[in-house]
Amino acid sequence: MRNVPNTITAIRTMVAVGLAVTALAQHSPALLVAAYATYWVGDIADGAAARALGQETRVGAVFDIVADRACTATCAAALIVLRPETALPVGVFLFQFMVVDQLLSLAFLRWPLLSPNHFARVDRRIWWWNWSPPAKAANTGALIVLVVLSPSPWLPLTFALTITAVKVASLVAVTRLTTPMPAFPTPVSGSP
Protein backbone atom coordinates (compact mmCIF):
# COMPACT_ATOMS: atom_id res chain seq x y z
CA MET A 1 0.00 0.00 0.00
CA ARG A 2 2.89 2.39 0.63
CA ASN A 3 3.87 3.62 -2.77
CA VAL A 4 3.52 6.78 -4.84
CA PRO A 5 0.34 5.86 -6.77
CA ASN A 6 -1.53 4.79 -3.63
CA THR A 7 -0.45 7.98 -1.87
CA ILE A 8 -1.82 9.99 -4.81
CA THR A 9 -5.06 7.99 -4.68
CA ALA A 10 -5.44 8.63 -0.95
CA ILE A 11 -4.73 12.36 -1.26
CA ARG A 12 -6.95 12.94 -4.29
CA THR A 13 -9.78 11.03 -2.62
CA MET A 14 -9.56 12.96 0.65
CA VAL A 15 -9.35 16.31 -1.16
CA ALA A 16 -12.07 15.54 -3.73
CA VAL A 17 -14.48 14.14 -1.13
CA GLY A 18 -13.76 17.07 1.19
CA LEU A 19 -14.40 19.57 -1.58
CA ALA A 20 -17.58 17.77 -2.68
CA VAL A 21 -18.97 17.62 0.86
CA THR A 22 -18.16 21.32 1.33
CA ALA A 23 -19.78 22.09 -2.05
CA LEU A 24 -22.83 20.17 -0.88
CA ALA A 25 -23.01 22.00 2.46
CA GLN A 26 -22.38 25.44 0.96
CA HIS A 27 -24.30 24.92 -2.31
CA SER A 28 -21.14 25.97 -4.15
CA PRO A 29 -20.78 25.19 -7.88
CA ALA A 30 -17.15 26.40 -7.79
CA LEU A 31 -16.24 23.89 -5.08
CA LEU A 32 -18.01 21.14 -6.99
CA VAL A 33 -15.97 21.94 -10.10
CA ALA A 34 -12.82 21.85 -7.93
CA ALA A 35 -13.90 18.48 -6.49
CA TYR A 36 -14.44 16.95 -9.94
CA ALA A 37 -11.17 18.44 -11.22
CA THR A 38 -9.26 17.04 -8.23
CA TYR A 39 -10.83 13.62 -8.72
CA TRP A 40 -10.17 13.45 -12.48
CA VAL A 41 -6.65 14.90 -12.41
CA GLY A 42 -5.74 12.71 -9.42
CA ASP A 43 -7.18 9.61 -11.08
CA ILE A 44 -5.06 10.22 -14.17
CA ALA A 45 -1.99 11.00 -12.03
CA ASP A 46 -2.19 7.88 -9.86
CA GLY A 47 -2.45 5.60 -12.89
CA ALA A 48 0.35 7.41 -14.73
CA ALA A 49 2.58 7.20 -11.64
CA ALA A 50 1.86 3.48 -11.21
CA ARG A 51 2.87 2.75 -14.78
CA ALA A 52 5.85 5.13 -14.93
CA LEU A 53 7.33 3.94 -11.63
CA GLY A 54 6.55 0.26 -12.14
CA GLN A 55 4.35 0.32 -9.03
CA GLU A 56 1.15 -1.23 -10.38
CA THR A 57 -0.32 -3.66 -7.85
CA ARG A 58 -3.59 -5.53 -7.56
CA VAL A 59 -4.19 -3.95 -4.15
CA GLY A 60 -3.57 -0.52 -5.66
CA ALA A 61 -6.01 -1.25 -8.48
CA VAL A 62 -8.73 -2.24 -6.02
CA PHE A 63 -7.96 0.83 -3.88
CA ASP A 64 -8.30 3.03 -6.98
CA ILE A 65 -11.62 1.41 -7.94
CA VAL A 66 -13.07 1.92 -4.45
CA ALA A 67 -11.69 5.48 -4.22
CA ASP A 68 -13.31 6.33 -7.56
CA ARG A 69 -16.68 5.34 -6.09
CA ALA A 70 -16.16 7.54 -3.01
CA CYS A 71 -15.27 10.53 -5.18
CA THR A 72 -18.10 9.92 -7.63
CA ALA A 73 -20.77 9.41 -4.97
CA THR A 74 -19.96 12.62 -3.09
CA CYS A 75 -19.56 14.69 -6.25
CA ALA A 76 -22.84 13.33 -7.64
CA ALA A 77 -24.66 14.10 -4.39
CA ALA A 78 -23.49 17.70 -4.56
CA LEU A 79 -24.47 17.92 -8.23
CA ILE A 80 -28.00 16.70 -7.50
CA VAL A 81 -28.39 19.21 -4.64
CA LEU A 82 -27.12 22.05 -6.82
CA ARG A 83 -29.16 20.97 -9.85
CA PRO A 84 -32.13 18.83 -8.74
CA GLU A 85 -33.29 18.40 -12.35
CA THR A 86 -30.22 16.18 -12.90
CA ALA A 87 -31.39 13.60 -10.34
CA LEU A 88 -32.70 11.07 -12.89
CA PRO A 89 -29.68 10.89 -15.24
CA VAL A 90 -27.22 11.13 -12.35
CA GLY A 91 -29.15 8.46 -10.44
CA VAL A 92 -29.00 6.09 -13.42
CA PHE A 93 -25.29 6.83 -13.76
CA LEU A 94 -24.71 6.19 -10.04
CA PHE A 95 -26.44 2.80 -10.20
CA GLN A 96 -24.35 1.87 -13.22
CA PHE A 97 -21.06 3.13 -11.74
CA MET A 98 -21.51 2.07 -8.12
CA VAL A 99 -22.95 -1.39 -8.80
CA VAL A 100 -22.52 -2.67 -12.37
CA ASP A 101 -19.21 -0.99 -13.22
CA GLN A 102 -17.72 -1.85 -9.84
CA LEU A 103 -18.48 -5.55 -10.35
CA LEU A 104 -17.12 -5.33 -13.87
CA SER A 105 -13.99 -3.46 -12.77
CA LEU A 106 -13.24 -5.97 -10.01
CA ALA A 107 -13.63 -8.90 -12.43
CA PHE A 108 -9.95 -8.55 -13.35
CA LEU A 109 -9.23 -10.32 -10.04
CA ARG A 110 -10.40 -13.56 -11.67
CA TRP A 111 -7.24 -13.57 -13.82
CA PRO A 112 -3.58 -12.93 -13.00
CA LEU A 113 -3.82 -9.29 -14.12
CA LEU A 114 -2.58 -6.23 -12.27
CA SER A 115 -5.67 -4.15 -13.04
CA PRO A 116 -8.60 -3.77 -15.44
CA ASN A 117 -6.24 -1.73 -17.64
CA HIS A 118 -4.70 -5.07 -18.69
CA PHE A 119 -8.02 -6.76 -19.50
CA ALA A 120 -7.19 -6.73 -23.23
CA ARG A 121 -5.08 -9.83 -22.48
CA VAL A 122 -8.31 -11.62 -21.59
CA ASP A 123 -10.78 -10.00 -24.02
CA ARG A 124 -9.87 -7.03 -26.17
CA ARG A 125 -13.49 -6.15 -27.02
CA ILE A 126 -14.54 -5.92 -23.36
CA TRP A 127 -11.40 -3.90 -22.59
CA TRP A 128 -12.13 -1.49 -25.45
CA TRP A 129 -15.70 -0.83 -24.30
CA ASN A 130 -14.75 -0.34 -20.63
CA TRP A 131 -11.09 0.56 -19.94
CA SER A 132 -9.67 2.07 -23.10
CA PRO A 133 -8.99 5.82 -22.71
CA PRO A 134 -12.14 6.82 -24.67
CA ALA A 135 -14.28 4.41 -22.65
CA LYS A 136 -12.93 5.75 -19.34
CA ALA A 137 -13.61 9.34 -20.42
CA ALA A 138 -17.14 8.46 -21.53
CA ASN A 139 -17.89 6.60 -18.32
CA THR A 140 -17.22 9.39 -15.85
CA GLY A 141 -16.56 12.65 -17.64
CA ALA A 142 -18.91 12.83 -20.60
CA LEU A 143 -22.12 12.41 -18.63
CA ILE A 144 -21.23 15.17 -16.18
CA VAL A 145 -20.43 17.52 -19.06
CA LEU A 146 -23.75 16.62 -20.73
CA VAL A 147 -25.65 17.14 -17.47
CA VAL A 148 -24.10 20.56 -16.97
CA LEU A 149 -24.48 21.74 -20.57
CA SER A 150 -27.80 20.18 -21.55
CA PRO A 151 -30.92 22.31 -21.11
CA SER A 152 -32.96 19.14 -20.60
CA PRO A 153 -32.29 15.91 -18.65
CA TRP A 154 -33.28 13.72 -21.62
CA LEU A 155 -29.96 13.72 -23.50
CA PRO A 156 -27.92 12.92 -20.35
CA LEU A 157 -30.50 10.29 -19.36
CA THR A 158 -30.24 8.64 -22.79
CA PHE A 159 -26.45 8.69 -22.50
CA ALA A 160 -26.55 7.23 -18.96
CA LEU A 161 -28.90 4.45 -20.10
CA THR A 162 -26.65 3.69 -23.08
CA ILE A 163 -23.57 3.44 -20.85
CA THR A 164 -25.56 1.23 -18.46
CA ALA A 165 -26.52 -1.09 -21.32
CA VAL A 166 -22.87 -1.35 -22.42
CA LYS A 167 -21.77 -2.11 -18.85
CA VAL A 168 -24.47 -4.75 -18.30
CA ALA A 169 -23.64 -6.42 -21.64
CA SER A 170 -19.94 -6.33 -20.73
CA LEU A 171 -20.60 -7.83 -17.30
CA VAL A 172 -22.64 -10.65 -18.87
CA ALA A 173 -19.82 -11.25 -21.38
CA VAL A 174 -17.24 -11.40 -18.58
CA THR A 175 -19.27 -13.99 -16.70
CA ARG A 176 -19.27 -16.15 -19.83
CA LEU A 177 -15.50 -16.11 -20.30
CA THR A 178 -14.13 -19.59 -19.76
CA THR A 179 -10.59 -18.75 -18.74
CA PRO A 180 -10.00 -20.53 -15.45
CA MET A 181 -9.30 -18.62 -12.29
CA PRO A 182 -5.63 -18.40 -11.34
CA ALA A 183 -4.33 -21.02 -9.00
CA PHE A 184 -3.43 -19.73 -5.56
CA PRO A 185 -1.22 -21.67 -3.15
CA THR A 186 -3.03 -23.98 -0.76
CA PRO A 187 -2.51 -22.89 2.86
CA VAL A 188 -0.24 -25.07 4.94
CA SER A 189 -2.01 -26.89 7.75
CA GLY A 190 -2.27 -24.69 10.80
CA SER A 191 -1.79 -21.42 8.85
CA PRO A 192 -4.66 -18.96 8.23
UniProtKB/TrEMBL annotation:
PROSITE patterns in the cross-refs: CDP_ALCOHOL_P_TRANSF
Gene3D superfamilies: 1.20.120.1760
Source organism phylogeny: Bacteria, Bacillati, Actinomycetota, Actinomycetes, Micromonosporales
UniProt keyword Magnesium, yes or no: no
Family matches, as InterPro entries: CDP-OH_P_trans, CDP-OH_PTrfase_TM_dom, CDP_ALCOHOL_P_TRANSF_CS
Example GO molecular function: phosphotransferase activity, for other substituted phosphate groups
A Pfam family hit: CDP-OH_P_transf
Protein name: CDP-diacylglycerol--glycerol-3-phosphate 3-phosphatidyltransferase
Residue stretches spanning the membrane: 93-114, 126-148, 154-174
Biological process per Gene Ontology, one example term: phospholipid biosynthetic process
Source species, domain of life: Bacteria
GO cellular component, one term: membrane
Annotated family: Belongs to the CDP-alcohol phosphatidyltransferase class-I family.
Keyword field contains Transcription regulation: no
UniProtKB keywords: Membrane, Signal, Transferase, Transmembrane, Transmembrane helix
Organism: Micromonospora sediminicola
Span of the signal peptide: 1-25
